[in-house]
């Protein structure tokens, strides 16, 4: 494998994953990018690539935009709410090492953008590329990219305040939430949940989930208390980082059952969002 591709593979993975929200699709795009790079390097008549990093990012981003169309077609027939495929890491991992991790909650918001808006937002807001650089990557004018960036930023900020809870608080609330859920303690759940809390349960056609997101403290508390009992006594909890944030991995034996990520309100730390990924196809890379 060429050194330039290896040197930049983690960056390419992060950029593409944040555009697609799917590990499998990201790996497909990276494979295509590597093939394009090796063909270019093997072409004796081609001009040398002066800036391999910029070349590789441009190829990967454009292939990711092409892949978004295939993902959109799959989404049309998807059963229930769709959540990104979680990136689950050990809880001890230094969050600073993955500064470009985008939270589950933000990835859900990014799904409301057009593919071009999402690509521009990810490149500019997450990875710090300047508008002229992005324009060159996408074959657009800087003015068009600035307009895309403005629309994307306004849309994201309207749905997602600029707030990230303290990791220790998120871990504490996650532990209390699971204690209450697995204990069937509805009163404790009601204390933790914000009045307009939303539950996203992504089970696909195979796992435990719902047909649409559920909103409201009482309804969500009752449902969580009920479904937490389904796996039986063999369920165990392993605390992990999911997309950079403290979270919980639920296992039956050694097999992943679900990933649970909580979103907290900035003013009081109540739970405003519950993201549960239980689709077995999205847990194949989780351990």
SSE layout:
Blueprint: H1 3-20, H2 23-42, H3 52-76, E1 88-90, H4 104-110, H5 115-126, H6 131-138, H7 142-159, H8 167-182, H9 186-192, E2 193-202, E3 214-215, H10 217-227, E4 235-242, E5 245-252, E6 255-264, E7 271-277
Parallel strand pairs: 2-7
Antiparallel strand pairs: 1-4, 2-3, 4-5, 5-6, 6-7
Task: Summarize this entry quickly.
It contains 10 helices and 7 strands. The protein is of the alpha+beta class.
Structure description:
With 287 residues, the protein is of the alpha+beta class. The protein folds into 2 domains: 3-159, Butyryl-CoA Dehydrogenase, subunit A, domain 3 (Up-down Bundle), CATH 1.20.140; 167-282, Roll (Nuclear Transport Factor 2, Chain: A), CATH 3.10.450. Helices cover 49% and strands 17% of the residues. The chain is built from 10 helices and 7 strands. The protein has helices at 3-20, 23-42, 52-76, 104-110, 115-126, 131-138, 142-159, 167-182, 186-192, 217-227; strands at 88-90, 193-202, 214-215, 235-242, 245-252, 255-264, 271-277. The chain has a 7-stranded mixed β-sheet with strand order 1-4-5-6-7-2-3. α9 crosses α10. The longest helix is centred in the N-terminal third of the chain and has 25 residues, at 52-76. The mean pLDDT is 90.
């Amino acid at each position: 494998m060429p050194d330039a591709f290896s040197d930049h593979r983690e960056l390419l993975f992060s950029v593409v994953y944040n555009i697609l929200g799917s590990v499998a699709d990201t790996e497909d795009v990276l494979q295509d990018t590597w093939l394009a790079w090796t063909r270019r390097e093997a072409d004796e008549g081609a001009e040398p690539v002066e800036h391999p990093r910029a070349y590789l990012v441009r190829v990967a981003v454009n292939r990711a935009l092409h892949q978004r169309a295939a993902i959109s077609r799959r989404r049309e027939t998807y059963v229930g709410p769709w959540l990104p495929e979680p990136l689950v890491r050990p809880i001890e991992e230094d969050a600073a090492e993955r500064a470009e991790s985008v939270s589950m909650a933000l990835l859900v918001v990014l799904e409301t953008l057009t593919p071009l808006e999402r690509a521009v937002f990810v490149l500019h807001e997450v990875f710090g590329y300047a508008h002229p650089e992005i324009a060159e990557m996408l074959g657009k004018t800087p003015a068009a990219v600035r307009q895309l960036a403005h629309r994307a930023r306004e849309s994201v900020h309207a749905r997602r305040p600029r707030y990230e809870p303290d990791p220790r608080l998120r871990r504490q609330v996650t532990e209390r939430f699971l204690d209450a859920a697995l204990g069937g303690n509805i009163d404790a759940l009601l204390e933790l949940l914000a009045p307009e809390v939303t539950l996203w349960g992504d089970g696909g056609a195979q796992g435990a989930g719902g047909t649409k997101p559920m909103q409201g403290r009482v309804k969500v508390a009752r449902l969580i208390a009920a479904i937490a009992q389904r796996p039986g006594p063999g369920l165990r909890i392993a605390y992990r980082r999911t997309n950079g944030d403290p979270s919980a991995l639920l296992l039956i034996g050694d097999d992943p059952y679900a990933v649970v990520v909580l979103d907290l309100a900035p003013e009081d730390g109540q739970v405003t969002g519950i993201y549960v990924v239980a689709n077995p196809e999205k847990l194949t890379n989780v351990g």
